[in-house]
Each structure stands twice: as C-alpha cells, then as structure tokens.
Amino acid sequence: MTKFLIFGIGLLSQVLFAARSFAQLFHTEKQKKVANPLIFWELSIVAALLMMAYGILRNDIIIFAGQILNYVVYIRNISLKKEWRNSVFKTLSYGVPWLIFSWLFLTDSSYSWSQMMKVQSSMCAVMALGWVGQIVFSSRFFYQWFYSEKRKESFFPLGFWVLSVVGGVLLSVYAMIRRDPILLAGQVLGILIYMRNIYYNRKSLKD
C-alpha cells in the first residue's frame, strides 16, 4: 500500500478527531460551560476505527493500542447517554474491532501483529516514550469513565483535560521523532482545544 493512501487514512481520522473536538468546543462556547454532546462520541468511534487501521499500516503498536483502550470508553459513554442513533451504527461499532483483531492475528502479512512487534523491539527508547505518552493520554478517558459512572451520566471532569494536555505533549514529541506528521498535527490542534476547556472548567468551579 502506498504512503499516500496510508497517510490519507490517517489524515481522514485526524479530521474526524478534530471535528469532534470542534463540535464539543462549539457546544461549550454556546453554553459557556464544558459540554458533552453525543456527536463527540459518535465521531470518536469512526475516527478511532480509521486510526486503528492507520496504526496497523504504519506498524505502530502505540497508535493502535491507544485507540483500542479509548474505544471501550467511547462505547460506554454512548451507552450512558442512552442515545445510540440506530441499530446499524451500534452493530458496526461493536463488530468492526473484532474483524480488525482477526486480521491482525490470523494473517502473516506486512501489516500484522508480529510485524508491529518487530518494529517495537527495534526502537526501544523511542517506543518507551510513546508508551508513556499513550498511557497518560488514554488514562484521561478511564478517568472520565470513572467520574461518569460515579455520576451515572457522561461527564468531562477537569482532570480529563489536564491529562489530555500532558499526554498530548508527550505524543507530540514521539510523533516528531517518528516523523509522523498526521499524529503530530492532531496532537498540536488538540492541545489548544484542551486548554480552552480547562479555562471553562476552572471558570465553572469558581462560579
């Protein structure tokens, strides 16, 4: 597969991730408080599936693993909101990841689990940085999940945005080392939006 097509998949994924962030920011600016619209989670699911494919095609286990961890939280948040748009979208959201896993473990091509592990073992120091960044970045959704379960509703706490900024900075450095313009562009744009949400979250705590 050509680099042009691989980067095209990654770019489309980042466009959707950016769209979800702008949609969330639009609702936040409109309400003057941190918003949690359904479209944020729906776009997250579609973008994550594309980013999983991008991670496989780039033989980057860190990108792939991060999307798998976050994906579970995306599904749960829509369930908490009780707002699945339709049964087809729900079925695909649950089923497509299993097809991706089947491909990874049942094939022995240039884009497989074994190939991703080979790349990881050849770049230990860089991969360590990437894993730290991805763990911090992904932990934000588990932090958000914990608070949402506690409140019995989908909710964005302040810590979610703080972890987003820290993880985003670490992954930006990783992307620069890996010369991955798609990952870098997504993180830099995201950091600006995370900081804006921190402002609104802190403002609401003061009010």
Question: Mind explaining what this structure looks like?
Answer:
The termini are far apart. Helix 1 (3-31) packs parallel to helix 8 (181-206), helix 2 (38-57) runs parallel beside helix 4 and helix 3 (61-81) packs parallel to helix 6 (124-151). This protein has 207 residues and is an all-alpha fold. It has helices at residues 3-31, 38-57, 61-81, 87-106, 113-121, 124-151, 158-178, 181-206. It has one domain (3-206).
What average pLDDT do the residues reach? 88
Structural class of the secondary structure composition?
A: mainly alpha
Continuous helix count: 8
Contiguous runs where pLDDT drops below 50 for at least 5 residues: none
> Biggest β-sheet: count, sense, barrel?
none
**Oligomeric state of the chains present here:** single chain
Shape: globular
Q: What's the count of strands?
A: 0
Question: Helical residue percent?
Answer: over 70%
Could you tell me the strand content as a percent range? under 5%
Radius of gyration equals 17 Å
| Series of secondary-structure elements, N-terminal to C-terminal | HHHHHHHH
In total, the number of domains comes to 1
N- and C-termini, Cα separation: 53 Å
